[in-house]
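Teaching note: in complex prediction, the entire set of molecules is handled at once rather than each chain in isolation. The prompt given to students was simply: 'Predict the structure of this complex.' The entities are:
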Amino acid sequence: MNLDGKIVVISGAAGALGVVICDRLAALGAKVVALDIETADAAEARFADCTSKPAYYTCDVSNEAETADALARLAKEVGMPDVVCCHAGVVHVEKVQDYSLEQFDALMNVNVRGSFVLAKAATNLWLAAGYTGAQLIFTSSWVHDVPWPEITPYTASKAAMNALTRGFARELAANGIRANAIAPGIVGAGMALKTWNENADYRSRAEKAIPLGFLQPPESVADAIAFLCSDMSSYMTGSVLVVDGGCSLYPNI
Ligand SMILES: NC(=O)c1ccc[n+]([C@@H]2O[C@H](COP(=O)([O-])OP(=O)(O)OC[C@H]3O[C@@H](n4cnc5c(N)ncnc54)[C@H](O)[C@@H]3O)[C@@H](O)[C@H]2O)c1
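The expected output is the structure of the full assembly:
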C-alpha cells in the first residue's frame, strides 16, 4: 500500500488511536496533518514516540469558525487535503437512568456535531477549489448497531455518524467527493483499554464479546484507515468498513 503524496487530515489525532494512525499513514508516505483540542506542547508530547511528526493544529471541531479557519490555514501551509478523517470522539459510561443531559449534550457535541462541522468545512474547502477525488472518513464503532450497556448515547452517536457517512456520500458523489466510515471493535488503547483495566464487570463482558478472543490492536485500525485513504478504496463510497474481530456478529453478553 502506498500513500505517497496524499495529504491526510485527522481530528482527535493526539488520542490513543490517533497517534498510531498518524504514524502508520506517515510510514506509508502520507503527509499527515493532526487536529486536536490539545495545546501544541501537549500534542508534541503525545507524538513523542512517532517516527514522523505530523503538522499540528489546535482545533475544537465542534466550533465551526475555528474548524474552517484551521482547514483554510493548513490548506495554505501544507496543501489541499485529499482525505479528512472525522476521528475525534468521546465516551461517557453511565446507566441510561443516571445519564445527565449535560453529559448527553457534551458527547453529541463532539461525536456528532464535531464530525458534521469538520466534514462540512472540508466539503466547502473542496467545493470552493473545485477539488475532486477527495474523501471523508468517519470513525464509527462496532456498537453503532449493537447495544452495549452504559454507553447508549455513545452508540446512538455512532449510528448518527454512519448516517452522516451515507448522507455526505450520497449528496457529494456528483462532486467527486466520497465518504466512508470505519467501525473498530474493542481496541487495546484509549477509552476501551482504560475501562478494561478499571472496570471488572466491563472486562468480563468484553472478554466474552470478542469472537477472535483478544483486544483489537490499534495498528489494525490504522491499517484499515490506510486502506481507505489509498487508491485501493477508490470505488467505495457510503460504506462502513467493520474491523472489529467479530464483535458485531452476535450479542453474546
Ligand atoms: N478505543 C476504542 O476501543 C475505540 C473503538 C471504536 C471506536 N473508537 C473511536 O475512535 C476515536 C478515538 O478513540 P480513542 O480511543 O483514541 O480516544 P482518546 O480519548 O484517546 O482520543 C480522543 C481524542 O479526541 C480529542 N478530542 C476530544 N474532543 C475534541 C474536539 N472537540 N475537537 C478535537 N479533538 C477532540 C481528545 O483530545 C483526544 O485526543 C473515537 O471516535 C472513538 O469513538 C475507539
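Point out the following to students. Strands lie at 7-11, 31-36, 55-58, 83-86, 134-139, 177-184, 240-243. Residues 7-241 form a domain with the Rossmann fold fold (CATH 3.40.50.720).
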